[in-house]
Automatic annotation (TrEMBL):
Keywords: DNA-binding, Transcription, Transcription regulation. Residues 14-90 form the HTH rpiR-type domain. PANTHER family: GLUCOKINASE, HTH-TYPE TRANSCRIPTIONAL REGULATOR HEXR-RELATED. This is MurR/RpiR family transcriptional regulator. Residues 134-274 form the SIS domain. Pfam families: HTH_6, SIS. It comes from Acerihabitans arboris. InterPro entries: Homeodomain-like_sf (IPR009057), HTH_RpiR (IPR000281), RpiR-like (IPR047640), RpiR-like_SIS (IPR035472), SIS_dom (IPR001347), SIS_dom_sf (IPR046348), WH-like_DNA-bd_sf (IPR036388). PROSITE patterns: HTH_RPIR, SIS. The lineage of its organism: Bacteria, Pseudomonadati, Pseudomonadota, Gammaproteobacteria, Enterobacterales. GO terms for molecular function: carbohydrate derivative binding; DNA binding; DNA-binding transcription factor activity. One of its GO terms (biological process) is carbohydrate derivative metabolic process. The keyword Iron does not apply.
Amino acid sequence: MNDSELQNEMPRGIGIAPYIRIKQEGMTENESRIVEWFLSPGNLSDVSGIKDVALSLGLSEAMIVKVSKILGFSGFRQLRSAIVEYFDHADHDITAELSPNDSPEDVVNKVFNLTVRTIVEGQAIVDANVIQQAARCFFTANQRELYGVGGSNSICADVQHKFLKIGLRCNAYLDAHLMMMSASLLQPGDVALVVSHSGRTSDLKQVVSIAKNNGAKIICITHSSNSPIAQLADFNICSPAPETPLLGRNASARILQLTLLDAFFVSVARQDIELANKNLEKTSSITKYLKRDYK
C-alpha cells in the first residue's frame, strides 16, 4: 500500500495504528514523540483537549495540529476520535513493554499479546493486490536475488529455502560486498527482494540503488512505504510493527515479516500451482533419507 492509497483509504479501528506508524517515517524528533504519545495506551480519551495534550508534551497546540494533518487527519479532533476507536478495538492487553516487576507469566503473555496485535494490525492494512503483483514479477523473473542485513539476512535465508522447495532458485548473500557484486550483474528482467525493518540501512540502500540502476525490479518488505529504501522499490509490502525496544523491532516485527513473506510465497506458488506441487514432492522425497533411523 503506497502513501497516496493510505490517504485515500484511511483504515479505521485496529488498522489506524499501523497506518500512523507508516506515516511517522521522516518526522522530526518532536513530531515523532507526539505520535508515540498518541499511540501509548491511557494518554488520550474522547474528552482530551488539545490544550491538555500540548501541556502533557510540553509543546505548542500548533504542533499538535500540524502532526494531525501530517498523519492525514483534518485536525486534532478527527485524530483523537480515530485513536480512541483504535483502543476500543484493541480487546487484548496492549501494555507490551517489559517491566522489572513482571512475573514469568507476565513476560510470556506480553510476548504473545504483542505478536497477536502486530499480526492483526498488519493484516488490517495489507494490500493483497500489491502482493499478487509482486508475486507475478518474482515468478516470471530471469534472476532472483534476496538482500537483507543483520536479522533480516536470516529471513532471506528462510525465503531462499522455501522457494527452493518449489523449484524457484534464488540467492541470499551473507555480506554487503557480495550483495553489491550481485546487484552489479542484475539487468532488466531480474528482480531483487529486499527485507529491511528500518528501511534505512546505508549498505543495503546502496545495493538496492545499484540493482535499480541496472533495470531490475525491486520488491521491498519494510515498516513504511516512506522509508528511503522503500522509495526505490517497485512494490512495497509494509510491515509496521510497534517500535518497543525488546518486543517490537526484535520480535514481533520479524514475525510480521515472516507472515507477509509466507503470504508472498504462497502467492508466487499459485502462479503455477501444479509445478509448485510437483517440485515440492521432488524436493521432499529426495531428503527423506536424512530422516532414516539407522541402527
